[in-house]
């Protein structure tokens, strides 16, 4: 039986890597998939999803006002039977699009696997995540760790000094080095100004020359 799945996590937990691996498993068995990605996320070029470890695949971009049920029906009409739909960065779905994703499951009998963040840098739910948590048939957390060693469940946006940024738009594409996954306890300390983050190096350090 087809289901709507929501795989959620903090940042840099390997959501896209897991999505691409799952899609590969379908293709390995001769089954056709459709990967969807929000049009506002253009970090890797138009029509492409990519993971931090170098995996990538073609994807169908969609704007916030596109009907996902109609999109999937059109894809089937043009290209034939479809066995699974994957949604990357699912936190950016609208309420209507989460409902349409559930229609893909309920009307067409096609499983939908959505991958995304649960909360933003203020600790508040994204719209897409809110309704996926409410309506998905199955929820699964993809775990990652805080620099303290605890499980990371939240995301902070930091400035160049590692201090928390608490104002600004909810969505800020790019600049991933400004977002850090932390535990709830660490999120409180950093947000209250009693803690800070040592920003990660963007490249591996060179070893000392002999």
Give a verbal description of the structure.
There is one protein chain. With 210 residues, the protein is of the alpha/beta class. Helix content is 27%, strand content 22%. The protein has helices at 15-28, 68-79, 95-108, 127-135, 184-191, and strands at 4-9, 33-38, 48-50, 56-58, 60-62, 84-87, 112-117, 138-141, 144-145, 151-152, 154-157, 179-182. The protein has a six-stranded parallel sheet, with helices on both faces. A two-stranded antiparallel sheet has the order 3-4. The radius of gyration is 18 Å and the shape is elongated. It catalyses: thymidine + ATP = dTMP + ADP + H(+). Substrate binds at residues 171-174, 179.
Summarize the structure.
With 210 residues, this protein is of the alpha/beta class. The protein has helices at 15-28, 68-79, 95-108, 127-135, 184-191, and strands at 4-9, 33-38, 48-50, 56-58, 60-62, 84-87, 112-117, 138-141, 144-145, 151-152, 154-157, 179-182.
Radius of gyration, rounded?
18 Å
Q: Give the name of the CATH superfamily of the domain at 4-142.
A: P-loop containing nucleotide triphosphate hydrolases
Class based on secondary structure composition and strand pairing: alpha/beta
Number of helices: 5
Q: What is the CATH C-level name of the domain at 4-142?
A: Alpha Beta
Report strand %.
15-25%
CATH topology of the domain at 4-142: Rossmann fold
Can you tag this structure with a few keywords?
alpha/beta; Rossmann fold; six-stranded parallel sheet; two-stranded antiparallel sheet; elongated; disordered C terminus; DNA synthesis; transferase; nucleotide-binding; ATP binding; thymidine kinase activity
